[in-house]
Amino acid sequence: MSNLLTRRLALLADAQHRPLLSGGLRGIERETLRVQADGHLAHTPHPLALGSALTHPQITTDYAETLLEFITPAEHDIADTLHKLDAIHRFSYGKLGQELLWSQSMPCQLPSEDEIEIAWYGKSNLGMLKHVYRRGLALRYGKAMQCIAGIHYNYSLDEDLWALLNHEENGDRKLTAKAYQSEAYLAAIRNFRRYSWLLMYLFGASPALASGFLRGQPHKLETLSADTLYLPYATSLRMSDLGYQNDAQSGLSPHENSLDSYVATLTRAVNQPYEPYQRIGTKRDGEWVQLSTNVIQIENEYYSTIRPKRVIRTGERPIQALCLRGVQYIEVRCMDVDPFEPVGISLETGRFLDAFLLFCALEDSPTISEDQSRLYAQNFARTVKDGRRPGLTLSRDGEEVALRDWGLALLERIRPVAALLDQARGDGVHAASLAVQAAKLDDPERTPSARVLAELRANGGSFAAFGLRQSERHAAYFRAHPANRDEEAYFGQLAAESLAEQAALERSQTGSFDDYVQAYRASNLCPNCE
Question: Residue 196's closest CA among 344, 338, 383?
Fold first, then answer.
């Protein structure tokens, strides 16, 4: 352990300060495709009984009309978060008829690009903005790639914990609360960059995909069966270069050495023209096809495995919120959907993520050079494509070290953090989760990616058949445990209120969509960040 981590752990172990460890919040966003009973993409609109995808706080859509996104309220304990996620699933299944929720990160068998419907949010200017943004994504990345699903893990620490560290480490020269907390979260993100390859090894669950997903693109995948491609030692093809990446965004990092640097980089990207997108233009035959011809249309288009976040206010853009009020939490975006879990993530995984992220937040975190950034990206890429290969090495401090050895050493560094969390709770759940992860490093066959391939090989090798089988199992679970009366009433009220809110928005809006987009693009992203 570094001296800084040792000091911080000792401070937080004090009985006076230990309650601060339970003051942070956890939230989950789970994406999942709606599919027909035969495992093919559903072609029905977003179910009205679920409410408005534009205004519902917990049930919305991501890219496609059939790509549901479930958003939990933030809770202090991940167990409570998962309970809320389970309730959203159970309510939703009661409104889906014979449709299923796809159990995998990589999509089911997809129809042609023309047949994949972009999510619709109604006729308000806000709804059209969201829809046109997605039209732009289709042009830039293709629709199939936008149907990939993941788990986003939102994590924060008690603001009083940051204030305590600021006081102890800076004394009379302490930074403002906003500045200290923002830079501390950025430091946590830098450590995440260093060590997130470990999450890909431990939790990656997408070593195979439907052969039609690649749409004839050249690739280096191997054939597992007539309808399935894979890599034998891959952990997460979703997070490989087959996923959501393109040349336009390739120059956007590193930028997480400070909040000012991060904000400035995204501000430039939103305002910097990109010649291939300029050739497309923003309109075709008078119809909007993308919001701008710049590197990214809006901040959310920037693809990253983790983001600093702040809850936005009405009419506010994400960068403006960060600039004005600082970082409030971090969003981990690299987690695959766990196909063996009905809600896509287990409680044990959540416990480990809490220990891992607290370690990232408390451990010393120097700034990252461009060369280091490339090395971290290389370690991540090796792990997602080849993570279970016997003898695989990663680059650490100028040396090649075995993934297994480095992983076990990292778990030892995380162990006292897990012990502190367990001390605060009075149990041993975080230590138990570490033991499960150590077993995966000792035996790669215990990893989710290996378990997926074992299931595939034992049942004919078809990714589509495996995905459908798991989806049916999960559907049976949720249908056997429907929403109770209180949950039905709660989500029914949210649905009705969201539909009414969308209708009111459409009735009351003024001005043309062209003017709305112009005003949105002209809004000052961040004072002093040009």
Answer: 383
